[in-house]
Write a structure and sequence with these properties.
alpha+beta, Beta-Lactamase, 5-stranded antiparallel sheet, 18 strands, HAMP_dom
């Protein structure tokens, strides 16, 4: 029978896990709901502020246009030529009549072209029974228009008048006799389609719609046919001016509505947006919040049951097993004061660690010694290689009889072999390794100064103290000479550059050879990254293995195509991944 090794249920792991889960999850659910409501409110307010500013600017522009039209209308009303036509028509000869009418038509046409909101301008002159307009010039007297607007004209300048399907400005010239009809009326018809187009500019979103509504719902126009349909169904709810955002419901559809009103024009301009569009950015959040809430309740139930079944009971069995596992332990005890199941587990674990420590130490030291032996073997393989090539170079110089170059060469060769044969540390400062490699290029210049050009950059100061295995750069340069540059019929190019990013250092050796195909380069890189016992231990493999042994994965050689279409070999040293065999820099 299983027994709890704790004093009470409240101290058990099962109880603590369930309570902790509830404490963490429930505040997150409440916070999510609060953030959703807060975000929706702010989104609506931000939308309303921007929209109301847009609507106010639209009304100001429209007011300016109407004011300007009224000024021009008043000028035409007081025009001497119009007055002469109405009063002295019978006294004017035909030439004078025609010239005056033509001048008036020209003025009306000019006035019409001065504003995109004007569809037509007409002057109805009652005494001569003629109507002059910008669109139709001189034609028969429009008695219907005259009768309608004479009944609405009580001053020299008026606000907007709705008639038919359009809006008008109308002003009449009174005779001075009480009750007598005006001598003539100046009528300006606004372009409804232009008003519709101007409303489209108010829409801030693709799903927004806007409208103009006259007080009393006498005239209404939307930015498009869809806006017209919505306006027809919901205009009754918009008869009261309201310069604030509110919810507008039309046929069950909810809209976010913003309006602005002009007292002078008796017009309301508004824009509406479906509420789902306002909350669209938050819709997924809302849906997932509900899913998360429901899933959380289910998860609490499942978690409580699963914790007991899959954690609590197996843990009790594990505790009993630990009582029987007193055969070993590591020497890293866990400090604890717990009184739950883990308290007993930690006690048994600490006892086990002390025994395991001895076994791990033995295994680790053995692997470390094998690793150092492999490193020594890899380094020893590369030392004789340059010796063979050096004798070939010296032999060539001897055949030419150039004693000065032989003397220079042997001096440099002595410095070179002093570096590779000295009994010291296997790892040297990068500055020494680069000095040695630069010496090698100087030796090669004695042979190929005319045929091979070498660019050897200066080593950055930040990289000088980095510790690296000996002979990792010079063999790469030697490889470029032996397998590429010496055989080239054209001028050979060799470049050695450096780079540093934090604790990562880079040395790049690249040439302009064309011996290797892209497939061959990829194959060589694959061998470097996935070495096996069947692969031949080449110079590159030797260098790569030594760097990886010291600095770990992420370091080593990386091959690619150079910008000269030759081979590019990048030596990466990730000092942050260093395994501890060589210090990243001198510290003594």
């Amino acid at each position: 029978m299983l027994k709890f090794p704790v004093q009470s249920f409240r101290k058990s792991l099962f109880f603590k896990l369930v309570i902790t889960y509830l404490i963490v999850i429930l505040p997150l659910i409440l916070l999510g709901l609060y953030l959703y409501n807060w975000s929706y409110k702010n989104a609506s307010q931000d939308l309303s502020r921007a929209t109301l500013a847009q609507l106010s600017n639209y009304l100001k522009d429209l007011n300016r246009e109407i004011d300007w039209m009224e000024i021009q209308q008043y000028d035409i009303l007081e025009d001497n030529d119009v007055n002469r036509l109405a009063v002295t028509w019978e006294l004017m000869d035909n030439v004078d009549r025609r010239e005056t009418l033509n001048d008036l038509v020209h003025r009306l046409t000019t006035f019409k072209g001065s504003s995109a909101y004007i569809k037509d301008i007409s002057v109805h002159i009652r005494p001569i029974r003629k109507t002059i307009s910008a669109s139709n010039a001189v034609h028969d007297f429009e008695s219907t228009s005259y009768d309608y607007f004479s009944g609405t004209t009580s001053r020299t300048g008026g606000s907007l008048i709705h008639w038919g399907q359009s809006l008008y400005l109308s002003a009449g010239k009174e005779t001075g006799v009480l009750g007598e009809e005006p001598l003539y009326i100046v009528q300006i018809e606004l372009d409804t389609e232009m008003l519709r187009e101007s409303l489209q500019q108010v829409n801030m979103y693709s799903s927004s719609r806007s409208f103009l509504l006259m007080d009393g719902a006498e005239f209404a126009i939307g930015s498009d046919p869809e806006a017209d349909r919505t306006l027809r169904d919901g205009a009754a709810a918009l008869t009261e001016p309201n310069e604030q955002a509110y919810r507008w419901i039309v046929d069950g559809e909810k809209y976010h509505l913003d309006t602005a009103h002009s007292d002078k024009l008796s017009l309301m301009v508004g824009t509406f947006l479906p509420e789902q569009e306002v909350s669209r950015p938050l819709s997924k959040f809302k849906n997932w919040a509900w899913v998360f809430s429901i899933a959380t309740v289910l998860a609490i139930i499942v978690y409580a049951y699963s914790t007991y079944r899959y954690v609590q009971k197996p843990m009790l069995y594990l505790i009993q097993s630990f009582r029987r596992m007193e055969g070993g332990a590591l020497d890293i005890p866990i400090e604890h004061q717990q009184e739950d199941e883990f308290g007993y587990l930690y006690n048994r674990f600490n006892h086990m660690l002390r025994k395991l420590q001895m076994l791990i130490d033995q295994d680790f030291k053995q692997k470390l010694m094998m690793q150092k032996a492999e490193l020594k073997q890899l380094q020893s393989q590369i030392n004789p290689h340059f010796l063979y090539n050096s004798f070939f170079i010296l032999n060539s110089l001897a055949k030419t009889g150039d004693l000065d170059r032989i003397e220079q060469f042997t001096q440099m060769l002595g410095e070179y072999f002093r570096f590779i044969t000295r009994n010291g540390e296997d790892n040297v400062r990068l500055a020494e390794e680069i000095k040695h490699s630069r010496m090698y290029t100087e030796i090669q210049k004695l042979r190929f100064s005319r045929r091979i050009k070498v660019r050897f950059d200066e080593l950055p100061e930040a990289m000088e103290a980095v510790r690296v295995p000996r002979l990792i750069i010079q063999p790469l340069i030697e490889n470029a000479y032996e397998h590429c540059l010496e055989k080239m019929p054209r001028e050979g190019l060799l470049r050695i550059t450096f780079g540093a990013e934090g604790e990562a250092f880079r040395i790049v050796v690249e040439d302009n050879g064309s011996e290797l195909s892209d497939e061959r380069i990829a194959e060589l890189q694959d061998r470097l990254q996935h070495p096996s016992d069947t692969h031949e231990m080449t110079g590159m493999m030797n260098i790569h293995r030594r760097i990886v042994l010291i600095y770990g994965n992420g370091s080593g050689l990386f091959l690619s195509r150079s910008e000269w279409s030759g081979l590019r070999v990048e030596v990466r040293i990730q000092t942050g991944e260093e395994k501890g065999h060589a210090p990243a820099s001198d510290r003594g």
